[in-house]
Write a structure and sequence with these properties.
The structure is a single chain. The protein has about 190 residues and is of the alpha/beta class. It has one domain: P-loop containing nucleotide triphosphate hydrolases (Rossmann fold, 3-Layer(aba) Sandwich), CATH 3.40.50. It has seven helices and nine strands, in the order E-H-E-E-E-H-E-E-H-E-H-E-H-H-E-H. Strands 2-7-1-8-9 form a five-stranded parallel β-sheet. It has a four-stranded mixed β-sheet with strand order 4-3-6-5. The radius of gyration is 16 Å and the shape is globular.
Length: about 190
């Protein structure tokens, strides 16, 4: 596959919807020829996260320098002083390897990619069956403070308003069913 045929597969969702689990499942499906687009972030590592695998962890100053140099496909200040973005060099790396880029990205970033590459992008909004289920999932992770959970739930309420701007809304009620549906969506889009 040459660079012109590379596609962008965007999975966006509020925290606790299950998008990361679905993306990891899709990456294991070798027939889909996907590679994970690693986002850059200025936030601190959480848990067992690895630089260059989960994220490119960079300082806020370096992030701002990349913004000034127009090095991002998209970027956003998601929380105060916590920047996230997709480096152009990351997409170029994946396409040069003959693969399609898959993103696990926040809602605004996902829509920015779709706006920038409308014909090359499949934008999927993953939705938990309810806010209550989302909250339960966030609490069961045991990675965030109570304050952070409340912040994430408030953000989720705002993000749900953007769902209809995506190509597809995938409700993640039963994970195995959502994974099968996601496979079908991606397979159809890249063929």
């Amino acid at each position: 596959m040459d660079i012109d045929k590379g596609k962008l597969i965007v999975f966006s969702a509020p925290s606790g919807s299950g998008k990361t689990t679905i993306v990891h499942h899709l990456l294991k499906q070798k027939n889909l020829n996907l590679d994970f687009s690693i986002s850059a972030t200025s936030r601190e590592k959480r848990g067992q996260e690895i630089d260059g695998k989960d994220y490119y962890f960079i300082s806020p100053e370096k992030f701002k320098s990349h913004i000034e140099q127009n090095d991002f496909v998209e970027w956003e200040e998601v929380y105060h002083d916590n920047f996230y973005g997709t480096l152009k060099s990351e997409v170029e790396r994946i396409w040069s390897e003959g693969k399609h880029a898959i993103f696990d990205i926040d809602v605004v970033g996902g829509l920015r990619i779709k706006d920038k590459f409308p014909d090359k992008t499949l934008a999927v909004f993953v939705k938990a069956p309810s806010i209550e289920v989302m909250e339960t999932r966030l609490r069961s992770r045991k990675t965030d403070s109570e304050e952070k959970i409340i912040e994430r739930l408030a953000k989720a309420e705002r993000e749900l308003a953007f769902a209809d701007k995506f190509d597809v809304i995938l409700v993640n009620d039963k994970l195995s069913e959502a994974q099968v549906k996601a496979e079908g969506l991606v397979e159809h889009f890249i063929s």
